[in-house]
Amino acid sequence: MKKFLAVIMAAVLLLSVSLPVFAISGEDLLKGALITVINEAVKQEQNKNKNSKSETQPKTQNETPQPSVTKSESEPDFSNMTEEEYYRSKEYDRLLFLSGRIENDLCELGNNILAYNKPALDIKLTKKERSVPEDEYDDSPNAKMILSNVMYNRVCVKGKTIVIGSAEKNKKFKTDLIITAEPDFPPAAKGSNQNVPRIYVGQDVNVLENFVGMSARNISNMQQRNRQKGTPITETINLDPTSFVFTNLAYKDNKIAELHHHNGYALTSDRAWNFAKKKAQELGLTFASTFNY
Question: How many C-beta atoms lie closer than 10 Å to residue 96's C-beta?
Fold first, then answer.
């Protein structure tokens, strides 16, 4: 712009100096020259502005931000995938992220209920109930048996939550199994991992689906593929199906209905297990379908 003004001023100065020297015909000549100079200056300025605008625009369409892909557009076809391939997938890894967060919350709730609430059932285990294989992975008929340090089982029921706990001689109970349908549990925690969404009872299941990248129905179908013939798919998801420490959730009508945790290595007597199962049925909880994997 400064160069443009300079050209105009120079042209005007040339005209003012030359007019006294030339005759009338010379004046017409100078006017023509001035018009030519001004037009050329305007043309140069226009070209400069045009080039400047073109440099600020994206060079290609690919450089512009693209909209995010929704789950329905990106979900892979798992119909022909083997279980081994599924367990190596990024979708399965994301279930594990959710599992760790929910397991910690459930165990904390269960331990507090066991410690500060009156038990619905409190029993001392018999020697037969305490007898376990020396090698916990040995389930053969000839397995060498030893007496477990676990001496007590306890069942607590609070609201829509059922907890089974076990303890040694000191009676410090820890959670072996917990099922809860308490709305809004677990609560939002300070300092929680912002990269992992909060999953709680009553939440839309699509929050889980969008994070995992797979529909809840397909996850259930994949995990229950080898169920007994004719058995319907239950609306449950095991967040860590390769472990014997289960963290599950149940969903209904596109809402998360219940959260479950069970330590499969814990010593739970049939008396405690059957009592908790009966209480779950009374509360309408899906205890019976929690471990169908």
Answer: 15
- E strand spans, 26-98: none
Nearest to 256 by CA among 204, 210, 188: 204
pLDDT by residue (tens digit) across 131-188? 999 887 787 888 899 999 999 999 999 999 999 999 999 999 999 999 999 999 988 7
Place of tokens 């089974």: 164
Q: What is the pTM assigned to this prediction?
A: 0.69
Closest CA to 202 of 157, 160, 258, 161: 258
Collect all residues with Cβ–Cβ distance below 8 Å to 47 and sequence separation of at least 6.
Answer: none
Q: Which one-letter amino acid corresponds to residue 83? A: E
**Model confidence pLDDT, tens digit, residues 42-65:** 455 555 544 444 444 443 333 333
The whole-angstrom separation of Cα 4 and Cα 51 is 16
Longest dimension (CA), the chain: 132
Q: What is d(CA 238, CA 254) in angstroms, rounded to the nearest whole number? A: 17
**How far is 251 from 107, CA to CA, in rounded Å?**
20
